[in-house]
Design brief:
Elements lengths: L7 H9 L4 H22 L1 H12 L3 H21 L1 H6 L2 H20 L4 H29 L5 H27 L4 H6 L2 H13 L4 H6 L3 H12 L5 H10 L15 H16 L2 H15 L4 H28 L2 H25 L4 H19 L2 H12 L5 H53 L8 H9 L11
Helix pairs in contact: 1-13, 2-7, 2-8, 2-10, 3-8, 4-7, 4-20, 6-7, 6-10, 7-8, 7-19, 7-20, 8-16, 8-19, 13-21, 14-19, 14-20, 15-16, 15-18, 15-20, 16-18, 17-18, 17-20, 19-20
Bound molecules: beta-D-glucopyranose (BGC).
């Protein structure tokens, strides 16, 4: 078993690796998966207006179609973890690109409702797989000091995908050509497929397969340096047990599971997708009377999301994960409280419009700088190499379930407790999130994955997993 007091060699490897343009290119291509994630989850909000008419959907069918991507993602992320460990991250991302291409074309040209539903389920499946394999792959090729920024390129891509989906919906809204709205998603899918074909395997997965010479070759290529022995040795030494799903039930792994489920819960249950998926509806409730006014202010939400994710990227490795999470959750909680109070006191007033807009923008800013990128990052960091694919896939699958629960219940919650009560619930959950982060989330900035794993195996408490 690893002993945290003998972690000196990890520190050497952590300090050696630097960033170079090749590793940035590798991370950027893998992050195209994030564009597909954002685009395909966002595009339906505009497309459904026309699909509803063309297919003459009942309310129930419409709900099923809108949520099919989410449930597909739950299934995709839950069942593919084993394959990420068995066939490797690269092959899985290539296959995912292919599934995206097939699912997107099938949904764009579906002649019937069942076929449409099924093809959206396939797209969701691909999103589920990509949502955990892409951050996982990037975390395994990135040098420790820049891992936060590189893995979070995936979150940046998600926000760009969401923004593009708003743009595409707006562009084709005039003619109502929903087949184009959905079909455009084939472009990033093709880029992901061909781009991944050209990228190297994850060196860590290659070590897991026992191909040390190949791993050395890949490390030299992505580090752009000859001396990679320290990092290679760290990876080799971190492998202790045979890959086996029963590892998931070991007591020493519990902190990783609590972190994974907890971060997924708080990322989703503080209401991000109530805002991302229902922004036009909320803006209408706040008094932006025409649909086009509501849709225009929604674009502001999308742009702010992208901008503040860009600002967060360098800060994740500079300030660290914990300060950003604590700051972000505090800001999210305050913004939600203001939103709740605005709806409580201001129904029908001019003020409500603007305080709703400002507090929603505030919420997005704080989310984009904290839980948005950092949930994916920390989950990709804390599982041991032998079951990193399986572990992260199950955690991400749980987060998709929370996503489906919030998206599916938001309108019902508003009927039950009003907008004001619903946002108050999200605000209270943000406060609980602060307590969770304060007590359990480790600071992993600049620390190698092997170092985190050694701490985990040594039974170090969750909050100290990044300690040297
Ligand atoms: C979340 C998505 C959300 C997006 C918004 C992601 O990190 O997982 O559910 O829609 O951020 O930017």
């Amino acid at each position: 078993m690893h002993n945290p007091s003998s972690l000196g060699s990890y520190v050497v490897a952590e300090q050696q690796a630097t960033i170079n343009s090749f590793v940035v290119l590798v991370a950027s291509i893998a992050a195209v998966a994030g564009i597909l994630f954002g685009f395909d989850t966002g595009v339906i909000s505009g497309a459904i207006l026309f699909i509803r008419k063309d297919f003459m959907l009942s309310g129930l069918m419409e709900g099923l179609i809108v949520s099919s991507v989410l449930w597909g993602a739950v299934i995709g992320s839950a069942v593919s973890g084993y394959f990420a460990d068995y066939f490797g991250r690269k092959l899985l991302l290539i296959l995912t690109g292919l599934i995206f291409i097939v699912g997107t074309l099938a949904s764009a040209f579906s002649p019937t409702v069942p076929l449409f539903f099924f093809s959206r389920l396939i797209v969701g499946f691909a999103i589920g797989v990509a949502s955990f394999v892409s951050p996982l792959y990037i975390s395994e090729v990135a040098p420790p000091r820049f891992r936060g920024m590189l893995v979070s390129l995936n979150q940046l891509a998600i926000t760009i995908g969401i923004l593009c989906s708003y743009g595409v919906d707006a562009y084709f809204a005039e003619t109502g050509e929903w087949c184009w709205m959905l079909g455009i998603g084939v472009i990033p899918a093709v880029i992901l497929f061909f781009g991944m074909l050209m990228l190297p395997q994850s060196p860590r997965w290659i070590v897991l397969k026992g191909r040390i010479d190949k791993a050395r070759h890949i490390l030299k290529m992505i580090r752009r340096q000859e001396n990679v022995e320290a990092e290679l040795n760290d990876i080799k030494n971190s492998i202790e047990e045979k890959r086996d799903w029963r590892l998931l039930f070991q007591k020493w792994l519990r902190p990783a599971i609590i972190l994974g489920i907890g971060l997924g819960f708080f990322q989703q249950c503080t209401g991000i997708n109530a805002i991302i998926y229902y922004a036009p509806t909320i803006f209408e409730m706040a008094g932006f009377k025409t649909a086009s006014a509501a849709i225009s202010v929604t674009a502001i939400v999308g742009i702010v999301n992208v901008l503040f994710t860009i600002i967060a990227l360098p800060l994740i490795d500079l300030w660290g994960r914990r300060p950003l999470l604590l700051l972000g959750l505090t800001g999210m909680g305050i913004s939600l409280l203001i939103l709740s109070i605005s709806f409580y006191v201001g129904a029908d007033s001019e003020m409500l419009k603007w305080s709703a807009l400002l507090s929603m923008v505030g919420f997005i800013i704080f989310f984009a700088m904290s839980l948005g990128p950092i949930m994916w990052l920390v989950i990709a960091e804390v599982f041991p190499l032998e079951i990193r694919g399986l572990g992260t896939s199950l955690m991400i699958s749980a987060s998709w379930i929370f996503n489906g629960m919030v998206a599916g219940s938001f309108i019902t919650l508003v009927h039950l407790f009003d907008a004001s009560g619903t946002f108050l619930i999200f605000a209270v959950l943000s406060v609980l999130g602060i307590v969770f982060v304060y007590r359990t989330v480790p600071e992993t900035k600049g620390v190698s994955l092997e170092h985190i794993e050694a701490n985990l195996r040594a039974g170090v408490p969750s909050r100290q997993l990044g300690h040297k």
